[in-house]
Amino acid sequence: MKKIVLPDRGAEVLFDVNDQNVRYLESLFDVQISARGDNLLVEGETHDVEALTQILTDFSELVSRGEKFRNGDLRVAFKQIAENSALTLHDFFPKLQISGAGGRQISPKSPHQKKYIEAIQQHDIVFAIGPAGTGKTYLAVAMAVLFLQTKKVERIVLARPAVEAGERLGFLPGDMQEKINPYLRPLYDALYHMLDPEKVSKFMERQIIEIAPLAFMRGRTLGDAFIILDEAQNTSPEQMKMFLTRIGFNSKAVITGDITQVDLPSGRQSGLIDAIRVLRQVPGLAFCYFDQRDVVRHELVQLIIKAYEIGTQPDAEPTAAPAETHVNNSDVGSQKTSTHAINDPPQ
Question: What whole-number distance in Å separates Cα of residue 33 and Cα of residue 2?
């Protein structure tokens, strides 16, 4: 039996509604947990008790520093730590946080998301590849706003290819801006989470924030800017090359996409898939890969993504989870002339 003392409000946060977090920990580690005020008593096999003790020690540190937990964040972290003992709660709730609209705190929610944020900080061009709901666009926009607020860039440019997701929408009414706005809606949604709508409107009027279809990027040079290309799997190789060659001095570019959801006409090659092949050995770029474990939407979304992955291989058993991403350079921090970092893609 092990006794663990939680900080003030620690037991309240940990037990949550109907003790669901504690019951979940019991099922993951095959232990029994009982509470006496802020004291927890843990019973079980020695290795399970030790693993849980480390989790609860880290949890206590996070609560003491004022960390806020929402929407099943803890259960997502508990599950991944149970599957990979090298992880800790600090990998899911790092000190890096970004203030969004209404004072909400935005931070990476998985080890891959944490490495993604670090890659954006350290590299001028970052590719983020993975399924929907893994935070690729959301965190890129958050970092863009942070760079703008800290005056590391002078403007934000958000671009998206105007490609229909399998539907034939036909003629759309309105002027050019009204026609393209439906395609750009996800970028607006992300911005409104980071900034008050009034500030977004003010920045757009002053062209500090620009949201436009990818086709509008041709012929431009984008300096002192944080540039995001969203839904990049729907670019052609020519469009991808055009976008990447727009980047000017003191700029960062993040390219996000899901190579399993290409909406291009049959026979057209995806510019994102082509870029992974062509650019993976170019120094100074980073490739970050995500999987269903990084999904931060409803818990069922993880299961849906996994089911579709299995469904595309009708005669095969489910494959092993992709290897953890890593930086190829042995010491990126000490290299001032080369910041080449590429994460291993899922096998």
Answer: 10
- Tell me the residue type at 298: H
CA distance 261 to 305: 11
Q: Angle at CA 52, nearest 5°, toward 48 and 58? A: 155
Greater confidence (233 vs 326) lies with 233
Q: What is the pLDDT of residues 167-202, one digit of tens each?
A: 444 455 555 556 566 667 778 888 888 888 899 999
Distance from C-alpha of 306 to C-alpha of 117, rounded to nearest angstrom:
25
pTM: 0.70
DSSP string, 5-56: E--TTHHHHHH-GGGHHHHHHHHHHT-EEEEETTEEEEES-HHHHHHHHHHH
Element (H, E) at 67: none
- Chain length of the chain: 347
How far lies 226's CA from each of 124, 142, 195, 235, 236, in Å? 9, 11, 16, 19, 22
Per residue, the 3-state secondary structure of 325-340, as one string, reads CCCCCCCHHHCCCCCC
Residue 238 structure tokens: 């020519």
* Single-letter code of the amino acid located at 251: S
Neighbour-count burial of 61, counting CB atoms closer than 10 A to its CB (0-12 exposed, 13-18 middle, 19+ buried)? middle
Greatest extent of the chain over all pairs of C-alpha atoms, in Å: 70
Query: For residues 76 and 133, what is the distance between their CA atoms, to the nearest angstrom?
Result: 14
Q: Specify the residue for token string 């977090």.
A: 21
Percent of the chain residues topping a pLDDT of 90 = 32
- Phi, psi angles (nearest 5°) of residue 54: -65, -40
pLDDT tens digit sequence for 241-259 = 999 999 999 999 999 999 9
**Contact status, residue 292 vs residue 306, Cβ threshold 8 Å:** yes
Could you give the CA distance from residue 316 to residue 320 in angstroms, rounded to a whole number?
12
> Distance between alpha carbon 296 and the CA centroid of its chain, in Å?
8
For 41-45, which contacts have Cβ atoms below 8 Å and span 24 or more sequence positions? Answer: 41/1, 41/2, 41/3, 41/4, 42/1, 42/2, 42/3, 42/4, 43/1, 43/2
